[in-house]
Design a protein that fits this description.
alpha+beta, six-stranded antiparallel β-sheet, five-stranded antiparallel β-sheet, 28 strands
């Protein structure tokens, strides 16, 4: 009783022992809570400042780009001002000042433009409209140098001499592809800084690194801008855009320290009676150089006081909660103390009662131990069974014959220590030739007589045949009448005969020997059935592998019988895994040196890098990327060292997961087909007589020349040639001599021009030459002079002396007064006009296309079209508007030419009203202008007859009335022509 009371007294001290511990725990939790709360508040504050810092930097960058685009837009109309252009070329400061002053005043008042500068091509300052007295200095700012280098507008912020930051846009001005100078607009960045202040509600400061400014210049600039200045406020920086009295002391303190760049945010900085959050980021100029810092301050005083108040209130509330919880714990623990005292007394009594029951419990434990041992033995047996089955499965994966796999499996079964079978047995398989017979495939320690008797057993014979026919387990514990096979001296024994089944299909029989009078056990039988099922998997796998081997042999036979080279490529490393014998024969390779050792690009291209890395299309890569069939053409080297054209086709080989593991690569020799296609192409694009490009290929090359000229901003020349006196040679000496002469003329043309130029025969004795990429028109004149000189030399054709000449019309593209939007038909037309001009000048010369030549044809064409569209008389108002439009289009006409055009208009109207085929009106009028040019206006009856014949060939037949009006039209066109020669 005393012991119980002593324990109760000791346990009453539970409150004393636990309560101090709880006080410590709550104190720790209170400290952690306060710390977390403080850290959270600090994190929120830091996130807010970080956001404002990011927003400030973003606003500065976006506003600079936006204002730069504005400045570029403002410069465009200034550049297009012709008077400014002339003044810039002449470096006329007075004119630039007179013209630019009003522009600068307008831009300054409306767009806050602070800088307007004209700079010559040597980057020498001609005029600063914002500082007229400062000029003649060399402009070495980054924006100007970048604009000169790229030929495009350049922009960025740059530090001025007075310490001011200016956003500058410098645009180069070109005249006839020659740089004549630069125009610069600038805008002070202070408005941008103020936008940061207004948007984010912070106070921004611009700090400039003293290394990039001079003290005197800066003090002057600050005085000019109305800002107070203090050069000595900070050792390395000056503040550029605020008064000194507004600068917090904490800001000076931060930037007086050399290691301030370690962090970009300073929180809760105290200055006088205020607290600030400060953030800054580097100010980068146009060249990428850090020339200063942009700092913002966010007043934190009011929020700091609120945070202190909230923090204090949270501490008081937390302390009250802790005291309340401790008081509750004290009450609870006191109640627990009383209950523990009562329970201890009850427990002592209960212990005495339960001690008597321990003996009964010990008896039950002994019984449970025996049962657990039996369970353990069963678990060991199950483990052995699983281990045997696992080993059998592992054997099935080995690359050994099926007989060896079955023998190893039989050894594992007979090795189990708890399995009471004799150490001998056999495995039968179904005969491949007779499905009603089983054949012994594996055995262990059987009598030699049994090996002979049991080598082949029909279904139903002896116990093994019975198991095969019934497809069920056969067990006997002795030798009985069903045991058909025996031999002299055979000892008594029993059998387990287990059919090996795959579904309902019998694959074989597992035969094991047991001792005489052995009891049949279900666990043993279940184990043997599981082993038989595993053996069925091994047998099925072997059959499947055999089918695969036969299938591969069949596929290899088919592939080797094909006439194309076929390879199988590894998708990972592009190594050749398989190839048919045609491939090795075609490329004279040895299989052992290639298969599994070299990649396709090493074998076919003699290179170690992939085809795609050498700018060669790889169909294998295409198949791996797209997962589909791919095709292309390559050039390979055959066994004789000759180039052959190969059509390459690829198809994917996928695994069970759908992943591409290999690629089938088929190579077909298409050299003969490519040679045939090349011959067809030559017949389609080359003249059969001279071998020169024909009309179709000429227009393709001309189209490419126009495209290249537009892309590279270069010029080319088209020479339109017509042989003089060739018709005389052809008629007098025969067409055979004429054909040979045309061939030799073509060879002369090819010798004169470059390989990149094009010489084409257009038909008859007409040729065209494209001189690509010329620097000036004199280059074309030089070639034309050489051609005329060489063609003037007599040709000896089969002993016949042939003297001819050539007339050449030249058109340089782009034409100096036109844009580069002309199509190829205009280029040919202009060269043709120039050719007629050369013939008009007495032949055997060259002429460039000029406005004088083209203007005549253009006037005739547009006036006759106007006559067609306005065929009724009395349209004077429309005619006056039409003349004004021609003037605006650059076709200015004198009073004499206008009168001639009015005559042509009336004649063309009358001709349009009488012509029966209205659609032929434009064709007849255009050809009429050519007739006038060709005959120099002096046409006769023979010329008219030839003209009418050419119209007839085009399907246009004129009656006598129409011919009379045509003659009237020719007379009016002649009067116009006489004003151009």
């Amino acid at each position: 009783m005393n012991n119980i009371e002593d324990r109760a007294v000791a346990e009453k001290s539970l409150v004393v022992r636990i309560l101090p511990f709880l006080v410590i725990v709550f104190a720790i939790l209170f400290i952690i809570t306060v710390t977390v709360f403080y850290a959270h508040q600090k994190r929120e504050l830091q996130d807010d400042v970080s956001h404002k810092l990011y927003s400030s930097e973003k606003i500065l960058k976006e506003d600079i780009e936006k204002d730069a685009k504005l400045l570029e837009g403002l410069i465009e109309p200034i550049i297009s001002n012709r008077e400014l252009e002339t003044a810039l070329v002449n470096k006329d400061r007075d004119s630039l000042k007179q013209i630019g002053a009003s522009i600068f005043n307008h831009l300054s008042s409306k767009y806050n433009i602070t800088h307007f500068t004209f700079i010559d091509s040597d980057r020498i300052n001609i005029l600063r409209l914002h500082d007229i007295d400062l000029f003649g200095d060399k402009v070495d700012r980054y924006t100007c140098i970048e604009a000169e280098k790229t030929g495009k507008p350049a922009f960025g912020i740059e530090l001025g001499m007075l310490g001011t930051f200016t956003l500058r846009v410098v645009t180069p001005r070109y005249l006839n592809n020659k740089l004549i100078g630069f125009i610069e607009l600038g805008m002070d960045i202070n408005p941008i800084v103020q936008r940061i202040k207004n948007t984010i509600e912070v106070e921004p400061y611009v700090l400039i690194d003293k290394r990039f400014i001079k003290q005197d210049n800066w003090l002057t600039g600050m005085k000019m801008l109305g800002f107070k200045s203090d050069w000595n406020m900070m050792p390395n920086y000056v503040i550029n855009n605020t008064s000194q009295k507004n600068v917090p002391d904490c800001l000076k303190k931060i930037f007086n320290n050399d290691d301030f760049k370690i962090q970009h945010i300073y929180l809760n900085q105290s200055s006088n009676d205020n607290r600030y959050n400060i953030g800054f980021f580097p100010l980068i100029d146009a060249s990428g150089k850090e020339v200063g810092i942009i700092v913002f301050t966010d007043i934190y005083t009011h929020k700091f006081k609120e945070d202190i108040k909230s923090f204090s209130l949270a501490i008081v509330i937390s302390l009250l909660l802790v005291l309340l919880i401790l008081w509750v714990f004290y009450k609870v623990l006191s109640r627990i103390d009383r209950r523990l005292h009562d329970h201890n007394i009850i427990l002592e009594n209960t212990v005495k009662e339960r001690t008597s029951d321990l003996q009964n419990v010990n008896v039950k434990l002994e019984q449970e131990i025996i049962e657990n041992k039996l369970v353990k033995d069963q678990m060991i047996r199950n483990f052995d069974i699983q281990n045997v089955i696992s080993m059998v499965l592992k054997i099935s994966l080995e690359n050994i014959p099926l007989k060896s796999k079955l023998e190893s499996a039989l050894d594992l079964i007979l090795s189990l220590p708890w399995f009471t079978v004799q150490k001998k047995g056999s495995i039968f398989l179904i005969d491949n030739n007779n499905p009603e017979v089983i054949v012994m495939a594996a055995q262990r320690r059987l009598n030699e007589a049994l090996l002979i008797e049991c080598k082949r057993l029909p279904f139903g014979k002896c116990l093994c045949g019975l198991a095969a026919s019934t497809r069920s387990v056969v067990f006997y514990d002795c030798v009985n009448d069903l045991h058909d096979v025996g031999f002299e001296g055979m000892e008594p024994h029993g059998h387990y005969c287990i059919p090996i089944l795959s579904g309902a299909t019998i694959l074989g029989v597992l035969n094991l020997y047991v001792k005489h009078s052995h009891k049949r056990e279900k666990s043993e039988e279940d184990f043997l059935i599981a082993v038989a099922n595993t053996l069925a998997g091994i047998i099925n796998r072997d059959k499947a592998e055999e089918m695969i081997r036969r299938s591969e042999e069949f596929i290899s036979t088919i592939i080797d019988s094909m006439h194309d080279s076929i390879l199988v490529i590894d998708a990972k490393d592009f190594k050749i895994l398989k190839a048919n014998h045609i491939f090795f024969k075609e490329y004279s390779l040895i299989p052992d040196e290639i298969i599994g050792k070299k990649t396709c690009h090493e074998v076919l291209y003699k290179q170690h890098s992939l085809c795609k890395e050498n700018n060669i299309q790889c169909p294998i890569e295409d198949t791996l990327n797209d997962g589909d069939y791919a095709s292309c053409e390559h050039i390979h080297i055959d066994k004789n060292g000759n180039e052959i054209y190969v059509e390459c086709n690829t198809s994917p080989i996928r695994n069970n997961n759908g992943e591409i593991t290999q690629v089938v690569y088929v190579l077909r020799n298409i050299t003969e087909r490519k040679q045939f296609e090349k011959r067809l192409k030559e017949l389609a694009h080359y003249d059969s007589l001279t071998g020169l490009p024909n009309r179709a290929l000429f227009y393709d090359h001309l189209k490419s020349a126009v495209a290249m000229s537009k892309r590279n901003k270069t010029s080319f020349a088209l020479l339109y040639l017509d042989l003089d006196k060739f018709k005389i040679v052809n008629d007098s000496l025969g067409h055979d001599i004429g054909d040979i002469l045309l061939k030799e003329v073509g060879e002369v043309f090819k010798e004169v021009v470059r390989e990149t130029d094009t010489v084409a025969r257009m038909g008859g004795d007409e040729f065209n030459i494209i001189l690509t990429k010329i620097d000036k028109k004199e280059d074309a004149a030089y070639i034309a002079d050489r051609i005329i000189s060489l063609i003037n030399k007599p040709f000896n054709i089969q002993g016949k002396i042939c003297s001819i000449g050539t007339s050449i019309g030249i058109c340089v593209y782009p034409y100096e007064k036109d844009s580069m939007e002309d199509d190829i038909s205009n280029v040919v037309k202009r060269a043709d006009i120039a050719l007629y001009r050369a013939k008009e000048q007495g032949r055997n010369n060259y002429q460039f296309y000029t406005d004088i030549i083209g203007k005549f044809d253009a006037l005739v064409e547009i006036v006759t079209i106007f006559a067609r569209d306005n065929s009724s008389q009395g349209e004077n108002e429309a005619w006056i508007k039409f003349l004004d439009k021609m003037k605006n289009d650059g076709l200015y006409c004198s009073q004499e030419i206008t009168k001639s055009l009015e005559k042509i208009l009336e004649a063309a109207r009358r001709f349009y009203r009488v012509i029966s085929i209205k659609e032929a009106h434009s064709t007849v009028c255009g050809n009429s202008a050519k007739l006038i040019r060709k005959t120099k206006g002096d046409w006769n009856a023979s010329d008219l007859e030839s003209f009418l014949s050419s119209l007839k060939e085009q399907g246009i037949v004129l009656n006598e009335k129409e011919i009379g009006h045509l003659i009237e039209l020719l007379s009016t066109i002649k009067s116009l022509y006489l004003q151009f020669i």
